[in-house]
Design goal:
Blueprint: H1 2-30, E1 44-45, E2 53-61, E3 67-75, E4 83-87, E5 90-93, H2 96-107, E6 110-111, E7 113-116, E8 128-135, E9 139-145, E10 155-159, E11 162-166, H3 190-193, E12 196-203, E13 213-220, E14 223-226, E15 229-230, H4 233-247, E16 251-255, E17 267-274, E18 282-288, E19 295-299, E20 303-307, H5 309-317
Antiparallel strand pairs: 1-6, 2-3, 2-8, 3-4, 4-5, 7-11, 8-9, 9-10, 10-11, 12-13, 12-17, 13-14, 14-15, 16-20, 17-18, 18-19, 19-20
């Protein structure tokens, strides 16, 4: 009886000991009272999410510190949530997913692995990317991203004359060979197409056609019309195909200088309006240059987008039966 009680006590002590081990391990891993702070995520961020960024100036600098190109991301002053991209005084819609990814990465940069103030040997003597962040309207944070990549991954950044190692390859988020890396390749963001209330399409058959084919879709009080006539089920299907087709148009290249003599080529004009008043309509004038080329589309009378010819031709086939 006594032996049985002794074994039972020993077993209880063993169970208590094992439970204490697991409790200690769980305490260490979850750290409910932040007693263990020796890791990257708990280190001091260079910029907290409460310090809302409203402008990002991105510069590619040569080894002589000359600006090779510059692009500026800015919060759209009208919508307060969308971002515009400025390159050489031209304004582009930005790829919101790319901007969001860059912002998330910037907010995750932390003062954890400080290398020191000597930047020699970390690639800052070569081409670097320089970011100038404006937040809360007047405050600014500057940092540079080295071309050198640590053997274990990550990036070297230069903040306040000190070199830090961060576990993100930031240069992968910014194409150093493309000054339009954050420009939206599509003609509009998807939410724009979800609120379309007008599409006007004009197709010239000949140069400076005086009587182009016109498809004027208009939404008024929940009713769609085509050329001022209430839309039929067949034409409603055509409208849905039109919107879906326009969503897949993507720019292979951007141009800010006129590449051809537009007066000698028939064009397709497309105007798309959104029911949200703060969003300006989109105007596209597209021309097919030759059999080996894509279409060039002038957007909002500002810059050119080179659009894959097969995407445009798939769009035009929707209207072939009425051509």
């Amino acid at each position: 009886m006594i032996l049985k009680d002794f074994n039972s006590i020993s077993l209880s002590k063993k169970l208590i000991f094992i439970n204490l081990i697991f409790l200690g391990l769980g305490w260490y891993l979850h750290d409910p009272f932040s007693l263990f702070v020796n890791d990257y995520r708990s280190a001091q961020a260079f910029l907290s999410r409460e310090q809302s960024i409203d402008s990002i100036q991105i510069q590619l600098l040569s080894s002589e510190q000359n600006v090779l190109y510059e692009e500026i991301l800015e919060i759209n002053p009208q919508s307060k949530k969308d971002w515009n991209l400025k390159v050489n005084d031209f304004v582009f819609d930005s790829d919101l997913l790319k901007v969001s990814t860059l912002l998330d990465t910037i907010y995750e940069l932390r003062n954890y692995t400080e290398i020191g103030s000597n930047k020699d040997g970390f690639g800052f003597q070569d081409e670097t990317i320089h970011l100038n962040l404006s937040y809360q309207e007047n405050d600014v944070l500057n940092f540079s991203i080295s071309q050198e990549i640590p053997s274990g991954g990550g990036s070297y950044i230069l903040v306040n004359s000190k070199v830090y190692l961060v576990p993100f390859q930031i240069r992968d988020l910014i194409s150093v060979s493309d000054p339009y890396s954050f420009a939206l390749k599509s003609i509009a963001n998807l939410d724009f197409f979800q609120n379309v209330n007008s599409i006007i399409i004009k197709k010239e058959k000949y140069i400076l056609d005086q009587q182009p084919e016109i498809y004027n879709y208009n939404l008024d009080q929940g009713i769609w019309t085509l050329n001022n006539l209430r839309i039929s089920q067949e034409n409603l299907s055509q409208l849905e195909q039109t919107i879906q087709s326009l969503q897949v148009w993507k720019a292979d290249e951007f141009y800010t200088k006129q590449a051809v003599d537009w007066k000698l080529i028939p064009k397709i004009s497309i105007q798309i309006a959104n029911d949200k008043k703060q969003i300006k309509p989109i105007q596209l004038d597209c021309k097919f240059i030759n059999a080996k080329s894509n279409y060039l589309c002038l957007k909002n009378n500002s810059f050119w987008m080179e659009i894959d010819r097969y995407s445009v031709e798939a769009f035009l086939k929707i209207f072939e039966s009425k051509s």
